[in-house]
Amino acid sequence: MENLIALLIAAPLLGAVVLLCGGRRLDAVGHWIGTALAATSFVIGIVLFADMLGKNAEHRAISQYLFSWIPVGSFQADVSFQLDQLSMTFVLLITGVGSLIHLYSVGYMEHDERRRRFFGYLNLFLAAMLLLVLADNYLLLYVGWEGVGLASYLLIGFWQHKPSAATAAKKAFLVNRVGDMGLSIAIMVMFTTFGTFAFGPVFDSVGKTGEGKLTAIGLLLLLAACGKSAQVPLQSWLGDAMEGPTPVSALIHAATMVTAGVYLIVRSGAIFNAAPDAQLVVTVVGAVTLLFGAIVGCAKDDIKKALAGSTMSQIGYMVLAAGLGPIGYVFAIMHLVTHGFFKAGLFLGAGSVMHGMNDEVDMRKYGGLRTYMPVTFVTFGLGYLAIIGFPGLSGFFSKDKIIEAAFAKGGTEGWILGGAALLGAAITAFYMTRVMIMTFFGEKRWQPDTEGHEPHPHESPRSMTIPMIVLAFGSVFAGGLFSIGDSFVHWLEPVTGHSEGNSPVSALTVTLATMVLLVVGAGIAYAQYGRRPVPVVAPRGSLLTRAARRDLLQDDFNHVVLVRGGEHLTRSLVYVDHTLVDGVVNGTAASMGGLSGRLRKLQNGYARSYAVSMFGGAAILIAATLLMRAV
Amino acid sequence: MNPVNYLYLAALLFTIGATGVLIRRNAIVVFMCIELMLNACNLAFVAFSRMHGNLDGQIIAFFTMVVAAAEVVVGLAIIVSLFRSRHSASVDDASLMKL
Amino acid sequence: MSAQLAAYSTSTGEAFQFWVLGTVAVVGALCTVFMKKAVHSALCLAGTMIVLAVFYLANGAYFLGIVQIVVYTGAIMMLFLFVVMLVGVTAADSLKETIKGQRWLALVCGLGFGILLIAGIGNASIKDFNGLAKANANGNVEGLAALIFTKYVFAFEITGALLITAAVGAMVLTHRERTERAKTQRELSEQRVREGKHVPPLPAPGVYARHNAVDIAGLLPDGTPSELTVSKTLRERGQIRDVSTEALSDLKALEQRAEERLERTNSGEGSK
C-alpha cells in the first residue's frame, strides 16, 4: 500500500509533463487526459483511504521512502512521504475537489484556445499540492509550497493578455515570496536547532528546546502561513488573484492552496503547543483576518471579489481555530474541508453565472437570475446556507465548533476571540445574503455590454453543473457526517490531539447566539437589498464602505508604508551614492587624472629625457648609499 | 702619487660620457659617449685589480670589452637600419614612444 | 721600484705620465662630447682610448693594454668611423638643444653625479695598493689565461655565444633581402623610353674651372641647379653643394678688386 503514495503525486505530475510538453497535437484530448489523471489520483486516494479505515487508529499512518535527495554530511534531505489521517483528509479534498473542478473546467474553458495548457497547469498544481501535504519533512514540504506558488502564479496570470491579470499574478507571487521567506528561514532555524527538519524528529525534540526558539520558529511559520493563506498582513494578493479563471479561484484560491497555511500550522502543532506566545499571535491574526475579510466581502460588488473576501474570512476562522491548540486543530481542519466544499461550490456557481452573463462580474448588473439558471441557483443557495451556518448544513457544524472552541480558550482572550468569531458569523450572514439577493433575486438589471450584446442568461452545460451538484451535496452533508458521533474528531485525534477545553458558555448558548446573529445579519441584508431595488451604480456609501471597497486600504497601506518607504530609502541611498560615494570615487579619479595629466608631460617620448631621469636616479642612489654609510 | 687618482679619472670620464649621452642628439656620438663610459669603467677595474693584487678586475674589464664589441656591432647595425628608414641619425627623431 | 713602495705610491715617472696623459684623456673626452662633427668626435675618442691603453699598461694590465689598442682603437673605432662615413661625414650636428630644460638638467645631473662619485671614492679612503707584482709573476697573459679558462670558463663560453649572436643580429638587421631581380641596363633604358622622360643619359654633375666634384649640381639653362646631376646617395644625405651663386659673387669680388686696383693706380697717377 505504501508504494501507492508516490503514485498519488506521479499521476498529476505525469499529466502536467505530458500536457505542457506534448504540444498542439494534444489540444483535442488534453483536457480529458488532465481530468482522467486527476481522477486517477482521486481513485488511488480512495483506495488508500479504504485501506486506512481498515486499520487501527494507531497503525493508520504509513510512509514511503523514495530516495535520498541531498545527503550532505549531517544535512540529510530525503524524498519520502508520510500518509496519516491529516494528510489523508487533504489528499481526498485535493483530489476530490480537484477532479470535480477539472471536470468543470472542461466546460468552462471550452472556448479558450489554450485549454490544454490550462489543464497542464492544473495538474501541476495538484501534484505540487499533494507533495506539500504528503511530505514527511519541511524541506520537501517547501518544494510543494513553492510548487503551488508557481502554479498559482501561472494560473492567476493565465489570461496574461489582460494587464490586470499579469499584474495580479505578479502581485500574488511577490506577496507570497514574503511568506516563503518566513518558511525558508524557519527551516534553517529548525536545522540549526534540531539538526534535522523531518517532522518526526523535530516534533520529538521540541520538549528539549527553549521556548524562545520555538516561538521564533512558530512566528516564522505563521508568516509563511499568512503569505499562502492570505492572512493579515499579507492578505492583499487574494482579491486580485480573482483575475484568474473561475475554476482556478475555486480550486486554488478557495478550497486548497490557500488552506496550506492552516495545514502548516496544524502539522506543526507540536511546535505551536510549546510556544504559547506564537499561538496567541496566530489567534490574533486569525481573528483580525476573519473580521477584515468579512468587512471587505460586504462592500465588494464584484461577485468573485466578494467571495474572495469571504474566503479570507473563513480561513481566518481556521487560523483562529488552529491557534487555539488542541482545542481547535480538529475543527480547523473540519472547517477547512467543509469550506472546501461549499466555497468551491459557490465559486463554481459564480463561474456559472458569469458564463451565462457574458463574463460580467458586477453583481449590480445581475438580479433575478434564479429563473434563468435553476441548477446554479439551487447549488449556490445550498452553498450559501452552508457558509452562513444554517442549522444542519456543513458550515453550521464546523463554524459553530470553532466559535465554541474560541470561547473554550478561556479567560479574557477567550471572550474576545469568541466575540470576534460571533461577530464574524453575523457579518458572514450579511454579506452572503447580499450576494445571494443581488445575484438571484430582485428585478433584472443586466445591460448590454460595450459591444452591444444583450446577455442571455442560460444554464451552464452538464460538465459544469454536475460538479456543482456534487459539491452542493458535500456542502449539505459533510458537516453532519463529520459530526455524527464526533467521527472527524476521532479520525484526526491520533495526529493532532484533541482536548475539549472548558468553555465558560455552554454549546447550546453559543449555537443560539450564532443563530440569533445569523438571523440579524441576514435580516439587515434583506432590509437593505431585498426590500429596496438595488441601484445599478454603486452609491457613494459610508466611509467604512468606501474603505472596504478599496480592500480596507490594504493596498494603500502597502503603497504608503512599503513602496513609498522603499522609494524614499532608495532615493536617500541614491543621494548618498551620488554625493558621497561617487564624490569620493570621482574625486579620486579626477585628482588622479589631473596628476597624470601633469606627470604625462614628463613622458615626452624623447629617449634623452628618460636617460636624464635614469641618470638622476643613479645619482640619488649614490647619494643614498653615501648617506647610509655616513650614518 | 696615489694610484687612487686613476679612480678619480675614471669617475670624471664616466660623468663626461654620461653627460654626453644626455646632450648629444646624433646617435653615433651618443654611442661613442657610451663607449667612453665603458672605457672609464674598464680603467676603474684595472685600477681595482692593481689595488687588490689579483687579476679578477682585469678579467672583468676583458669581458666588458667583449660585450662592448658585441654591443657596438648590434648598435651600429641598428643605427644603419634606422638611417636607412628615416634618413636621420638623430635620437630625438625616433621619439615614437610619444603619441 | 720596490714592492713596498708600490703599495702606497707610484714612481715619479708614473705620476708625471698620469698628470700629462690624464689631462689629454679628459680633454679628449670633452672634445668627444662637444665636437660638432661626428668624425672629430670619433678621432678624439680614439685618442682618449689610446691614453687609456697606456694607463692600462702602467697599471700592469699588459694584455688589456694591447687589446685596448688593437681591438678598441683599431677595430671598434674604425667601425665607428666607417658608419660615420656611411651615414654622412659632413653632416655637422647643430648643438642647439631642442628639448626644453634638457641641457640644464643634464648639467645638474652630471655635476651632481660626478661630485657624488668622486666624493664616494674619496670617502672610501683607499690606502694600500697591493700591486700586481705577485699576480703577474708568471706573466700577465698567462695569469689571465689561467683565470679565464678555469674560474671564468662559463662566462667566457657564454661571451662567445653572445658574440656569435651579435654577429648574426647585425647581419639580420642590416641585410635586406632582394625580393625582385635587379633590372639590367637594357631594361632600365627601355623603361625610360616607355615613360618618356630622361630618354638620354642623366646629366653629368657640374664641372667648373674651380670646382670639379660629384657633389656639385649641374646648372640648368636658367641658372638653377638640377638635382638629377648628383648621385642619389648624396641627394638623400642632403650633401649637395650649391655653387650657382658662387660664380656671380666671385665675379663681384673680382670686379671690386679690379676697381680697387684701378683706383689706386688712378690716385698714383694723380699724385705724380
From TrEMBL, chain A:
Single GO molecular-function term? NADH dehydrogenase (ubiquinone) activity
Q: What is its main location?
A: membrane
Q: Which GO terms describe its cellular component?
A: endomembrane system; membrane
List all membrane-crossing ranges.
29-50, 87-106, 118-135, 181-202, 214-234, 246-266, 278-299, 315-334, 369-394, 414-437, 466-485, 505-527, 610-628
| GO biological process per UniProt | ATP synthesis coupled electron transport; electron transport coupled proton transport
Put simply, this protein is called NADH-quinone oxidoreductase subunit L
Specify the NADH-Ubiquinone oxidoreductase (complex I) chain 5 N-terminal domain's residue ranges: 69-119
Annotated membrane topology is: Multi-pass membrane protein
Domain NADH:quinone oxidoreductase/Mrp antiporter transmembrane spans what residues? 135-417
- Record InterPro entries: NADHpl_OxRdtase_5_subgr (IPR018393), ND/Mrp_TM (IPR001750), NU5C-like (IPR003945), Proton_antipo_N (IPR001516)
Write out the entry's keywords from A to Z: Membrane, Transmembrane, Transmembrane helix
Name the source organism: Streptomyces albiflavescens
- Compartments reported by the entry: Endomembrane system; Membrane
TrEMBL record, chain C:
Pfam short name (any one): Oxidored_q3
Give the residue ranges for region: Disordered: 181-204
List, in alphabetical order, the Gene Ontology terms for molecular function in this entry: NADH dehydrogenase (ubiquinone) activity; quinone binding
Q: What class of enzyme is it?
A: translocase
The catalytic activity of this protein is classed by the Enzyme Commission as 7.1.1.-
Arranged from A to Z, the UniProt key words for this protein are:
Cell membrane, Membrane, NAD, Quinone, Transmembrane, Transmembrane helix
Q: Which reactions does this protein catalyse?
A: a quinone + NADH + 5 H(+)(in) = a quinol + NAD(+) + 4 H(+)(out)
Q: Where is the composition biased (Basic and acidic residues)?
A: 181-198
Query: TM spans, by residue?
Result: 16-35, 42-63, 69-92, 104-126, 146-173
Q: Does the keyword Transmembrane helix apply?
A: yes
UniProt cross-references to Gene3D superfamilies, sorted A to Z? NADH-ubiquinone/plastoquinone oxidoreductase chain 6, subunit NuoJ
User: Record's superkingdom?
Assistant: Bacteria
Any one annotated GO CC term: plasma membrane
- Function description: NDH-1 shuttles electrons from NADH, via FMN and iron-sulfur (Fe-S) centers, to quinones in the respiratory chain. Couples the redox reaction to proton translocation (for every two electrons transferred, four hydrogen ions are translocated across the cytoplasmic membrane), and thus conserves the redox energy in a proton gradient.
NCBIfam families xref list: PRK06638.1-5 (NF005165)
Protein name, as recorded: NADH-quinone oxidoreductase subunit J
